[in-house]
Amino acid sequence: FSNSLFSSYMDWFHNFNCSLLFGVLSFVSVMFGYLLFSNFYFKSKKIEYQFGELLCSIFPTLILVAQMVPSLSLLYYYGLMNLDSNLTVKVTGHQWYWSYEFSDIPGLEFDSYMKSVDQLELGEPRLLEVDNRCVVPCDINVRFCITSGDVIHSWALPSMSIKLDAMSGILSTVSYSFPTVGVFYGQCSEICGANHSFMPIALEVTLLDNFKSWCMGFMEN
């Protein structure tokens, strides 16, 4: 399920490549079966088949072009996403929790730990809900700067097609615009120790006015 324009493009490109691969496999299977069970091929005295050789050169080229055009378009769109941002969030992975710092809002930083079973409220998913969600506004380009304070982690949101490794001393960046309001969950996707499976990610996308109210309430508390 795609929750953004970029992830929709990624899903479409994946389905397109799978359809293309299925067509190629079907064609090769039919031709192989024809050559295997037909006596025409073995009775033919022609050793060279120039038209067939030409097709074997043209078809792979057309397939590569068909893959190249949407691939370059997707890369170009991804590059446009990283040109500018209205909000910067620094994400730091620790054993075994995440820290968030809003660089454009001084003093707005917090740690995010997984909620235990006895802390969960009705409707909150087990092993995915956290005590402090990362809240961002929708329809605004947000830049995430991801790093680590110790070992290698990976900040991943599958529903948004986001997955970046968090490495100590290296700042990985990605810009994203969220058109859908909601709460999206992910987990650390890099084995980082004994409690690797207990450092979930909860990203809440809300309206701009609600985001401003959340920031003011967080700063007051």
Structural class based on helices, strands and sheet pairing: alpha+beta
Strands in their spatial order, largest beta sheet: 3-2-1-5-8
The CATH topology label of the largest domain is: Immunoglobulin-like
SSE arrangement, N to C: HHHEEEEEEEEEEH
Span of the ends, CA to CA: 36 Å
Number of discrete domains: 2
SS strand fraction: 25-35%
Which consecutive residue ranges, at least 5 long each, have pLDDT under 50?
none
Radius of gyration: 25 Å
The CATH homologous superfamily of the largest domain corresponds to: Cupredoxins -  blue copper proteins
Number of H/I helices: 4
**CATH class call of the largest domain:** Mainly Beta
Fraction of residues in helices? 25-40%
EC number: 7.1.1.9
Domain Cytochrome oxidase subunit II transmembrane region profile: 1-82
Domain Cytochrome oxidase subunit II copper A binding: 84-217
Catalytic activity: 4 Fe(II)-[cytochrome c] + O2 + 8 H(+)(in) = 4 Fe(III)-[cytochrome c] + 2 H2O + 4 H(+)(out)
Q: What is this entry, summarized?
A:
It is a multi-pass membrane protein. The protein has helices spanning 5-37, 40-43, 50-81, 208-220; strands spanning 87-94, 97-102, 109-112, 134-137, 141-148, 153-157, 162-166, 172-177, 182-188, 200-206.
